[in-house]
Amino acid sequence: MAFGLFKKNKHEVEPIFAALGTDMHCHLIPSVDDGSKSMEESIECLSTLKAVGYSKVIITPHFASRYRNDEEDIARRFEEVKKAANDEGLEIELSGIAGEYRVDTIFKERLEHPRFLKVGGKYVLVEYSIHQQMIGAENLIFDLQMQNQEVILAHPERYPYINIDGAQIEQLLNQGVLLQCNVLSLGGFYGEEAKRRAFTLIERGWVSFLGTDTHNVLYAHALRDLTHQKKVRKLLEKYEFKNKEL
Ligand SMILES: [Fe+2]
User: Fold this and answer.
1) How many whole angstroms from 135 Cα to the centroid of ligand 1?
2) What residues pack around ion ligand 1 (CB closer than 5 A)?
3) Which domains does the chain have, with CATH numbers?
4) Confidence class of residue 12 from pLDDT cuts 50, 70 and 90?
5) What is the pTM of this model?
6) How far is the CA of 42 from the centre of ligand 1 (A)?
7) Under a CB-based contact definition with an 8 Å cutoff, are residues 182 and 20 in contact?
8) Rounded distance, CA 128 to CA 185, Å?
9) Distance (Å) from CA 8 to ligand 1 centroid
10) What whole-number distance in Å separates Cα of residue 210 and Cα of residue 170?
11) What pLDDT, on a 0 to 100 scale, did the predictor assign at position 2?
12) Using alpha carbons only, what angle is made at residue 158 by residues 39 and 99, rounded to the nearest 5 degrees?
């Protein structure tokens, strides 16, 4: 038998995310935000999540002034995705629906009438603007915590205005905000700076959750490629994340 047959095909996918178990951040409800545009695309992305090792998925559409989603409507659409995945025979559990809540001009209204769809029924996933910080964003997060909500801040590595060696991130951690990095940041999907910041935050032990933040098939392809990166595999073996509690 030719020796070459034992070599790994670079198109093969390694299930390196099996240890995490649950992807707790992705945009696979079709046509409700900037994520998947069709049920077919959602199914393709979900089958990639299965291939790279995930056994459960929590879908987290954007709730923002730009995407005026309604919790009840999103919950209903989630059932449609579940049914489609089931009809396709996808062996991955769609275990929950939650929001990714943007801390923006309408966030204050949400605090007045809270009806959050939470990750694992427990955590409110929030995000900041990628481009510039909203003044008072931290106070709104604090107000949310005052309502006895546990808070996860999505992809801190992607906010260039937050100095990861500075007081702002320390303050967030001190007030009990949990951090979630995107796995694709580790492969440079969002640029070298986000990559460096994601590795640093994880190596400092500051990151509680990892998410794929899958929006479409481009993300799915990048996830497949990521499974060949030794440095990422090693990091997943070395550090513990709370994903498996979900
Ligand atoms: Fe997201």
Assistant:
1) 21
2) 100, 213
3) 22-245 (3.20.20.140)
4) confident
5) 0.94
6) 15
7) no
8) 16
9) 32
10) 19
11) 47
12) 40
